[in-house]
């Protein structure tokens, strides 16, 4: 009883202190102006509760608020929940909601809406592990939500960001229609966030305006946000350079990034923990269940020794990316760099291949392998390993796919030997990391499941334990061991973290460069 | 005329069936796209999507259902956007039509003027320059021309906007200011799209005019004492336009497909970008709707060409058709 009280009151004190701290950081903020934000894709609709991804997330985070927010680093800040506490056994998380918050149509935001939103996400969102341990959400009063878990779930706090748990109105979405295709997802959106929807014209723009009744006094600073949908990377770069756009996120083309770094009037940044909650990692995946060589661990290790991670980062990515040594993003608190890194060593590669029982033939070739890739941005990487693996006697055939569904069908159907891929961590390893390595997630026909057919009982055990370990030090230790084992087994060879950059003009104050970058609320952004 | 209409209908039917089959053969479907878009999905979710969109039924059944709907002018709902295909197309068609017609007009007007100039002094410096310019526009890939124009006239000399159809800030401004903004945004894309066909029209005008200028009745007009300007513009030009207009009609479908690339470079919100996106997403109802309407636009374009020809050349009027 005493323990719970101490935990609760310290959480409250911390929350109040953080709130005060956050207000101080906006000194110098000016009210007014229209931010022009260049975005890369047209979203299917604007509701992140039933749809993952950046295209829906960027506008969705402005339209909907969430219990928590993570503005700079991994420390949760109060948002719709002004304070929260976790019970000592980790099975109950209580949220105390802000009073006086309303939806865009004036209806008060209640704890029943929080319960409804969690249920909607559980039933419709593709990431099932986010809220799987939530058994029920009790609502003793309009401003208290008590989340009951079947086991401790440290990932829960991160999952309550506006990218993953937008609070949607029960009185709109509870009408019996399928939330995935509900008309309110794209028109007359009734949200809970700092901005209201004015107009959504596909392939043209999304216009948002300030929510005057937003529950945080004085915010948002901007009058309007115009999201211009410019698909072509070159056109976006020009728009940012000549001042037609003030902001852009998720820019990853190395040439565009380097060009914008040199341009005047704009800053291109990926410093610190920017994009760490997205955690995008590019890797060369192996089909470990194939009849051929990729089923042999020594062969995979040999290929890892032969492929030069440094070359990929310096020459192909033009120095814009960070090397990734494991399945967890370098910006995550659980990152373990002390693993086998497979630095370039052709002699070791050759020795391992000999040991594996694949000697060189008369013409110097040991065996043939195919490599797939799914989109133009990763083509150079696929082409690079052909001459590189030739040096150790592997003859590589590059299989290109005309578009994403073709590649997804192949890889999802386990019809591949090697493929390049990019997979997101999505913040907490439970959400986006476990799915690649869990033997229970070998699902044919589903892209971004465990398409490598990797199965290691110790890894399964470690992930199970780490997923419900609330002590941060013990959790880190568990994930460290996990990363060491997968580095040893090499079901995928991790090469680099995608160099997502935020580009913003000198006119922009408080640009979104935290762990969620541009998929976070822009209520603190202002124009100088 | 009735025979023409019959041909048009048969063509449309063939377009629908052929494209339905082709899309069905391509690997992957909307469930894979949605899973990719969502950053992953479970088997149950994907099976549910396939059942929702009738993709688990056998192919002939799917085709039959679709054809039955098309006959009643029901083009279905986009798998990807969940809005009726007809409203998606209605949103985009005006933008593409504007681009395509403006490009054709640019190409025709500039092409004919250049052709006439080079025909009047066939071996002059200007004529050679015109030939070079036209060939350059024809051989350079259209997306390259577009990006070069963007760099030149949007970045180095900030004269034109870089993307889109209208300045979003003008959402509440009076109509004439909105039209002006659209025209400002339209200039570069229309010029880019016109650059390919400019060459054809200028070369053809030049050749056609040279042939006409050598004809007997022109010599008569000159002998009669008509001014050079009257000779060239009243008599020779009208008679040499026939082949150019025919070519313009034939090129119509090429212009519509060229619009896809131009729309992509300039983020022009037309049918081209929607078509590309729908194919990549395997959004079958949208693709078929667009292909149906494109075929319709090309048929109408050709009909207009015929009408124009009849206006220019009285010898074609009457009989036949």
Tell me the distance between the termini of chain A.
50 Å
The CATH superfamily of the largest domain in chain B appears as: MetI-like
Lateral arrangement of strands in the main beta sheet of chain A: 14-18-13-17-15-16
String of helices and strands of chain B: HHHHHHHHHHHH
Which spans of chain B have pLDDT < 50 for at least 5 consecutive residues?
A: none
Alpha carbon gap, first and last residue of chain B: 6 Å
Q: How would you describe the overall organization of this protein?
A:
The complex is a heterodimer of chains A (528) and B (321). Chain A is α+β, with helices and mostly antiparallel strands. Chain A is 30% helix and 21% strand. Chain A has helices spanning 2-25, 54-63, 111-124, 156-159, 170-173, 233-241, 254-262, 297-306, 309-316, 346-355, 379-390, 404-412, 429-432, 434-437, 457-467, 472-489, and strands spanning 34-39, 68-69, 77-78, 81-86, 92-97, 134-141, 144-149, 195-201, 205-210, 224-229, 247-251, 266-269, 280-286, 322-323, 367-373, 394-400, 418-424, 492-497, 501-505, 508-509, 526-527. In chain A, the strands form six sheets. A six-stranded mixed β-sheet of chain A has the order 14-18-13-17-15-16, sandwiched between helices. In chain A, helix 8 packs antiparallel against helix 10. The longest helix of chain A is centred in the N-terminal third of the chain and has 24 residues, at 2-25. The termini of chain A are far apart. In chain A, 54% of the residues are buried. The longest helix of chain B has 39 residues, at 175-213. With 321 residues, chain B is mainly alpha-helical. Chain B has two domains: 2-74, no CATH class; 93-317, MetI-like fold (Orthogonal Bundle), CATH 1.10.3720. In chain B, helix 5 (85-120) packs across helix 8, helix 6 crosses helix 8 and helix 7 packs across helix 8 (175-213). The relative contact order of chain B is 0.14. Chain B is built from twelve helices and no strands. Classes of the chains: A alpha+beta (528), B mainly alpha (321).
């Amino acid at each position: 009883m005493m323990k719970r009280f101490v935990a609760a009151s310290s959480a409250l004190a911390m929350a109040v202190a953080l709130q005060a701290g956050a207000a101080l950081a906006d000194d110098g903020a000016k009210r007014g102006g229209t931010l022009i934000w260049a975005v890369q894709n047209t979203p299917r609709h604007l509701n992140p509760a039933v749809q993952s991804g950046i295209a829906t997330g960027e506008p969705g985070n402005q339209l909907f608020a969430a219990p928590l927010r993570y503005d700079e680093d991994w420390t949760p800040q109060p948002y719709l929940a002004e304070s929260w506490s976790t019970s000592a056994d980790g099975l109950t998380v209580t949220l105390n909601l802000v009073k006086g918050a309303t939806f865009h149509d004036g209806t008060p935001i209640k704890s029943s809406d929080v319960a409804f939103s969690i249920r909607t996400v559980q039933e419709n969102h593709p990431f099932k592990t986010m809220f799987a341990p939530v058994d029920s959400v009790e609502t003793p009063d309009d401003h208290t939500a008590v989340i009951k878990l079947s086991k401790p779930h440290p990932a829960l706090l991160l999952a309550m960001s506006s990218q993953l748990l937008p609070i949607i109105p029960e009185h709109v979405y509870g009408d019996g229609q399928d939330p995935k295709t509900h008309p309110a997802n794209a028109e007359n959106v009734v949200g809970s966030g700092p901005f209201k929807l004015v107009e959504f014209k596909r392939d043209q723009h999304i216009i948002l305006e300030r929510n005057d009744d937003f529950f945080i006094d004085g915010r948002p600073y901007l009058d309007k946000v115009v999201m211009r949908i410019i698909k072509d990377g070159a056109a976006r770069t020009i728009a940012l350079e000549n001042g037609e756009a003030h902001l852009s996120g998720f820019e990853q083309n190395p040439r565009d990034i380097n060009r914008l770094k040199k341009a005047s009037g704009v800053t291109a940044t990926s410093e610190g923990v920017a994009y760490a909650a997205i955690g995008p990692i590019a890797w060369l995946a192996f089909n470990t269940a194939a009849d051929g060589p990729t089923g042999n661990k020594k062969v995979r290790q040999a290929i890892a020794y032969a492929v030069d991670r440094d070359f990929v980062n310096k020459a192909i990515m033009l120095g814009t990316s960070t090397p990734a040594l494991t399945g967890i993003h370098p910006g995550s608190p659980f990152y373990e760099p002390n693993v086998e890194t497979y630095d370039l060593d052709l002699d070791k590669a050759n020795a391992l291949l000999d040991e594996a029982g694949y000697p060189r033939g008369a013409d110097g070739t040991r065996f043939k392998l195919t490599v797939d890739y799914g989109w133009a941005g990763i083509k150079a990487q696929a082409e690079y390993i052909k001459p590189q693996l030739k040096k150790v006697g592997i003859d590589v055939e590059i299989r290109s796919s005309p578009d994403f569904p073709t590649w997804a069908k192949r890889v999802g159907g386990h019809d591949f030997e090697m493929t390049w891929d990019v997979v997101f961590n999505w913040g907490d390893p439970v959400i986006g990391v476990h799915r690649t390595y869990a033997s229970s997630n070998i699902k044919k026909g589903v892209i971004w499941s465990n398409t490598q057919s990797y199965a290691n009982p110790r890894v399964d055990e470690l992930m199970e334990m780490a997923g419900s370990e609330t002590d941060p030090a013990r959790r880190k230790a568990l994930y460290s061991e996990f990363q060491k084992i997968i580095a040893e087994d090499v079901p995928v060879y991790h090469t680099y973290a995608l160099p997502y950059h935020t580009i913003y003009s000198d006119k922009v104050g408080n640009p979104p460069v935290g762990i969620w970058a541009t998929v976070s609320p822009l209520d603190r952004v202002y124009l100088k | 005329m009735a025979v023409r209409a019959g041909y048009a209908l048969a063509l449309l039917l063939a377009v629908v069936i052929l494209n339905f089959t082709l899309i069905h053969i391509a690997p992957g479907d909307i469930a894979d796209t949605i899973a990719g878009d969502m950053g992953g999905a479970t088997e149950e979710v994907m099976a549910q999507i396939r059942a929702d969109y009738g993709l688990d039924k056998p192919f002939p059944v799917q085709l039959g259902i679709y054809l039955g709907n098309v006959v009643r002018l029901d083009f279905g709902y986009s798998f990807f956007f969940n809005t009726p295909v007809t409203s998606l197309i209605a949103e985009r068609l005006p933008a593409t039509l504007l681009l395509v017609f403006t490009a054709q007009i640019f190409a025709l007007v500039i092409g004919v003027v250049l052709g006439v100039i080079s025909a009047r002094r066939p071996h002059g410096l200007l004529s050679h320059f015109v030939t070079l310019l036209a060939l350059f526009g024809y051989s350079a890939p259209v997306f390259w021309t577009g990006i070069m124009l963007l760099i030149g006239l949007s970045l180095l000399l900030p004269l034109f906007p870089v993307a889109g159809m209208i300045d979003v800030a003008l959402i509440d401004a009076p109509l004439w200011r909105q039209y002006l903004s659209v025209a400002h945004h339209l200039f570069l894309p229309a010029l880019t799209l016109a650059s390919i066909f400019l060459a054809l029209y200028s070369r053809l005008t030049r050749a056609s005019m040279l042939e006409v200028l050598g004809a007997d009745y022109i010599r008569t007009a000159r002998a009669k004492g008509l001014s050079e300007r009257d000779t060239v513009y009243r008599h020779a030009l009208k008679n040499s336009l026939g082949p150019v207009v025919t070519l313009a009609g034939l090129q119509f479908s090429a212009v519509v497909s060229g619009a896809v690339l131009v729309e992509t470079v300039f983020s022009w919100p037309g049918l081209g970008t929607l078509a590309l996106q729908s194919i990549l997403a395997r959004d079958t109802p949208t693709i078929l709707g667009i292909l149906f309407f494109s075929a319709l636009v090309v048929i109408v374009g050709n009909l207009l060409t015929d009408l124009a020809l009849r206006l220019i050349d009285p010898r074609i009027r009457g009989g036949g058709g």
